[in-house]
Design goal:
2 domains, globular, seven-stranded mixed sheet, 60s Ribosomal Protein L30, Chain: A, Phosphoribosyl-aminoimidazole Synthetase, Chain A, domain 2, 321 residues, 23% strand
Amino acid sequence: MKVLRHAATGAPDGWVVADSDLDDAAVLRLDPSVPDAPYLVQTVDFITPVVDDPFVFGQVAAANSLSDVWAMGGEPRFALNVVAFPSDLPLELLGQILAGGADKVREAGAVIVGGHTVTDREPKYGLSVTGVVAPSAVTSQRGARPGDALILTKALGTGLLVGAARKDELDPDAAEALVASMTQLNQAAARAAREVGVHAATDVTGFGLLGHAWHIARASAATLVIDAGALPGLPTARARAAAASLGGAAGRNLTYVREHLSGEAPHEGLRLAIDPQTSGGLLFAVPEARVEALRERLEAAGALAVRVGEVVDGPAGLRWR
């Protein structure tokens, strides 16, 4: 926030969701004279490798980048590759990364139309994604209302499991579940939310569940109550969370929300909630009357539909239940 305030350039005419909202993507009305014309959705994201397989890394990075468009209720149309690659690594590896990214972009019904590459000491890959969203379908972080349920569509713990894999401490079943989660697109979950109608949405990535929940609370001027015992974890994630420290990236996430968080939670619940996610799920604030309809559609789409809390009256903040 302290850095980004210097980058603000002012919202152009037709701005629907601005950079000051901390939302997942920018949304712009291109032609105000046509009320029903689709809005433009624009985002960019890239990550360092979280798996050893370059093709899978490309898949994960692309899924992670595409997710921001779905969090806004939109659909991706085209993307540009964003690449940093060491000069001393074989170009065949880069080709596999790009192939993995293209695979997920095709699955999303979009196309890659170019990109940009620089030389760097550590590989990095992601996408700048352009999408569209119908005016009536826009979801942002600022619409949550008291009485809404909070529904999460993927299990937590990717940060914990990636760390374990780097130490060769992850068993094959947990490793398979980790990759399956990170490569699963949020497209079907977002479409289910559009069909049912949700008040607010965000994707859960680097700030962890609590960080992204705080963004909804801040934008919606409401209190989000989080149920630590209900948080879903990937295989072995809860056990690892119980033994994990509160340092590193997770510690920075805790510092980010600490002054806005009240109440207490068991260590493993707290650690799971601040775990930085890669290609995590979507978090929805949905009216109570629509929870079952959303759950049915999410489960039919192969996504989780776990109730992890609720929205209540109060100042912008987070509270444990």
